[in-house]
Amino acid sequence: MARPLLKIQRYFRRKPVRFFSLILLYLTAGSLVFLHSGFVGDSGSGGRGGRDSLVASGTSASDARGLNIMSRVFKETRRSGRRYGPPWMKRARHEGGEKMRRGGDYTSNWNRALKGRNAKDVDDGRAKYIGCYVDDTQKRALRGVSFFDYKKMTVFRCQDNCAERGYMYAGLEFGAECYCGHKIQAPNASESECNMECKGEKSNQCGGANRLSIFRLELSQESARRYGSAIFKGCFHRPDNVTLALPLSAVILNMSVEKCVDMCTEREKTLAVLAGDRCLCGFPTPLFSLHELEDESLCLHRCPGEEFESCGNDEYFVVYQTQVQDNRCMDRHFLSTRAKQLVALASFPGAGNTWARHLIELATGFYTGSYYFDGSLYNKGFKGERDHWRSGRTVCIKTHESGRKEIEAFDSSIVMIRNPYKALMAEFNRKYGGHIGFASQAHWKGKEWPEFVRNYAPWWASHTLDWLTYGRNVQVVHFEDLKRDLFSQLKGMVQFLGLKVSEDRLLCVEGQKDGNFKRSGLRKLEYDPYTPEMRANIDELIKTVNAALKKRKMSGVPEEYMPR
């Protein structure tokens, strides 16, 4: 016995690397076994009906639940998205999963506020409970993006992820699975069958075994309804000259949204238009601008190839935007001759200056400059960042400066104003999370946020007041108005810059208005960070700015700014 042990000892003395490799493999195997057992053990809070049926079949409830969840995970992993949308679907599912895993306690305040209350009974303007529905793994009730979180799934997290992607419905199943969709494509089930508690929220039910607890979402105006990778634009009346407005068309057997979007994507057109059994493709133009939205009920005509989809008819068209990029507004360059006037694009930080620059560059085809230099913005395509702000090669210059000397350096200015409650939060996120990042919960709940509001809120008002006082030729643009009516507001800004307006370019901008400068919204706060004292001070500042605007014979601040 001693001789074999001695040989092993000599072997490992000669090969220390192998010895440490074996130890590492042993520890890795042990960790995997531990994690696997923990996963299966945690996944087993099933509904009573599902447990009884499993026990009746001769399998223990705990084993069956674990096996059932594991099989569902692998089954869903293998499921592919629609043919024209796999890159987006995979990316969205990955991002959603990552955000859920990293979620930490960012919904904890919301959950604490609702503790002891059932989500079905809460009418908070975010979502309304519809009911319990049957779900078939082969033919889903909600056929959009799906997310899983077997540790921390909550009703709000599911609703937020679906709403962010523009879906009308959010459904929870098996206590841990979230499904999104535009239509419920399954029959009702008994409420008693949606009896599984949410993994991250024991006070609420998250569906059951093959049963969905479905909520109808109250989407914000800017939310985009999607069908796979395509964005639903709405129902529109037939243009006067269809052939000229939408030059490509074809009759498709068993028409469906998927088939039309596929065809227009392959033809490299940004619009997929359904008119009964005909599919038309093209770009937004003055002949078909998508500005006169019709009631969706006028387009309710069942698709031959998919009974739950609407394909429009000869008079009213259903329109989707494909993933194809509209290149009509992508070319940008510096001014060929030095500008005679310096035009400021002035705003308080967090009021949408970077977004406005993006829109102006696409609409005019010329770069914008900056009073500062931001390397991250230069790397994202703002080539005017490197130019000195007095170079005269850019159409306007971004600035957050205030004060007489700085303002009088410019010949004219576009002043962007945003609701201070939104602007302060946006700038706080930028300061602690970057241009499209987010401040952490520690920053919001620590001393940073109160100090920030105390210092920055007065600046929001003084910035606007200074530009109104010392600016020589001022055009005020409200961030909210630009979002609501981008075409006409942006057209006015281009005209103020003294440049020729191209309606084709403006329509192109509408299709890609967000660029890379919009926060995802998945981590928005679920509580009000403003104290009553903060609100009282900010409300007074709003009234001061409103009075100053009216004194200059301008329209006051939008109604939504004013305290109620």
UniProtKB/TrEMBL annotation:
Keywords: Membrane, Repeat, Transmembrane, Transmembrane helix
InterPro entries named in the record: P-loop_NTPase, Sialate-O-sulfotransferase, Sulfotransferase_dom, WSC_carb-bd
Keyword Magnesium: no
GO molecular function list: sulfotransferase activity
Domain WSC: 126-218, 229-323
Entry-linked PROSITE patterns: WSC
Transmembrane segments: 20-39
Membership in a protein family: Belongs to the WSCD family.
PANTHER family: SIALATE:O-SULFOTRANSFERASE 2 (PTHR45964:SF7), WSCD FAMILY MEMBER CG9164 (PTHR45964)
Protein name: WSC domain containing 2
Organism: Labrus bergylta
